[in-house]
Amino acid sequence: MLAVRRALLAAFVMLAPALSPAAETDGKTGLVLAPGFEVVSTQCTVCHSARLISQNRSDREGWLAMIRWMQDTQGLWPLGEDEDLVLDYLATNYGPLSAGRRRPLPASLLPDL
Length: 113
Fold this sequence. Notes:
This protein has 113 residues and is mostly helical. It contains five helices and no strands. 49% of the residues lie in helices and 0% in strands.
């Protein structure tokens, strides 16, 4: 019985994010409609697909590092006064997920190579 309860709890934890109401998204880009959407949509999708945004998740510092990398290596222009709005939008709507992949298997359960 305990095993069944654990299995049900694990299933609930895995499915809970899918059961929560999804944020409203833009039909064209798929990006979350929230403050900063217009600036992010305009600034970011000039060079790459909105999918590149939605498939990545990071905190504010991580997004800033990605922006700096694009500025240093890809020719992204300075975002100026829009930078804080862009970072707020990205960190809020595409921040790290609290639940991710399972923990790695212990070495004792891995096959010998």
